[in-house]
Write a structure and sequence with these properties.
single chain; 592 residues; alpha/beta
Length: 592
Amino acid sequence: MKVSLLFPPTWHPSQPYLSLPSLTGFLHQGGISDVSQRDLGIELLDTILTRTYAAEVYQLLVAKQRDLERTQTGETGAGSREHYAKVIDSLDRFGYLVDRIELAKETLRSEEFYDPDAYRASLFMIDKWLEVVSAIYFPTRLTVVDNQFGNYSIYSSKDLMKVVRDEQQNPFLSLFRNRFIPSIVDSRPDLIGVSITATSQIIPGLTLCRLIKEAAPDLHVTIGGSIFTRLVDNIRRCPSLFELTDDIVVFEGETALLELVNQLAGKKDYSKVPNLIYRNNGKITVNQPFYSENVDQLPAPNYDGFPLDLYLSPEPVLPVQFSRGCYYKDCAFCALTLDHQNFRQKDPGRTIEELQWLKDRYGARHFFFTDECFALAPTRRLCQQMIQKQLDVKWTCEMRFEKNLSRELLASMREAGCLKIVFGLESFNQRIMDFMKKGVKQEWVRRITNDCVDLGIAVHCYVIVGFPTEKEEEALETMSFIVENKKLNQSYGFSCQPCLFDLEKEAPIMSDPGGYGIRRIMRPSAEDLSLGFFYEVQEGMTPDEAERLYQYVYERISEVVCELPFNYAMADGLLYISRASEGEKQTPVAAR
């Protein structure tokens, strides 16, 4: 059996994502050796950032200018006066940018990456080039890490079925058709798996599926990814999705994909495939109960075939896992725990073996643990073994502000190579923390952040503005903790990402909205694939008031945070911190 695994745009260009390498390693372990995997996101970005593609862009811009001179109507939107102005502006900037796009790309892959001015200038140049490319497809706007498709909603199946066929506003149709579809279908795999794990991948990923099915209707296409895990009930009522794919794997995909491959080679009894959603005789079937993997039986992620030299960084930062799920699971706002259903911890010794294998095979020295939360006792054992075996790697992970997260453990983590810890602070107001069921006290936050800074471990804090019942002064207390805490915000590598509260599907708060001060929930009727809801509150800030305050909080925190690289990309920031910690090249704390 021949399997082709594809990761569509758009994802951060600094590092690969973990899904395909995990599946590839598991398929190999299960006896499926003919597996290819491609990160089409980085392949596509590498193509767009070339003079060869620029020549095509110029011809398309000129053609679009001529067309709009004859046909433009209205003030804004596709085919409007604004569209025409965007095209003219892009043609004006074309000559300047075309001479710099390849240099910008190569700068980020070289030692110049560590020059903050060159780093920022390169990212700026790439974004401006993508703006020029986007002018052809206005109001679509491509960026390095996201896409906006005008009035199309990624949460509406009707919109999705339209946009995957919209030649005027969907640039991925021509980009995929001309550059990827022939090589994908000509290799004649028995199964093609498409991993859609972020909202930025929904339209590109479904566009890819549509073009594959159009070019080779007999090829079996399956979709996986956390987006669809949260939409199981919605998918039951959304038959149009199965015009683009044969089936969808939800929750964890290793055993499911291996069994699907085996069924395709055998009796094709899809009822035997765990976690599979498929259409049978016009009826959509969801195979339950949902299956969770034994993490100690999972092999190391296999990055063979990934173009590690194409990522926009001077050396690889590879994602790995030490555990699945969250051991805490009580945070009222968090829907992430659904993805893995229950917490499972890998044996530290197996993780050490994986890291050593990845280091030897790919020359990786830097790792990004994707775990939802490191548990304390296993972390202690992991660090002890890292130190004993002199593994000599640098890494980052996510933890909670636990009472028992001691300075001693943090010191052990630092000695083992931990350079940054990501914390979900969410709020520094004790009432809100308690109401969120964070299980955290203010004094623990102060102590742990101080210990991290003292020990040379950088800190990232996620902050939420507008949790139900939150008052303005309570949100400002959180902001003040960040903005006025100079020891923290001036420490090298510090970052902080404020987020506006979103009432998410499957979050614990949805089981008792009234208990959290939510008076009314509105489900957008047209958005049958919605991952969140509109709501009204009984007290505290309204959603509109919270949004206005969020903008203020974001601006104030941005004044004390180094946006590039530390608030832009964890992988990039890890490389900067590693370089500074080695004393090879000290970089400024922040560009305010």
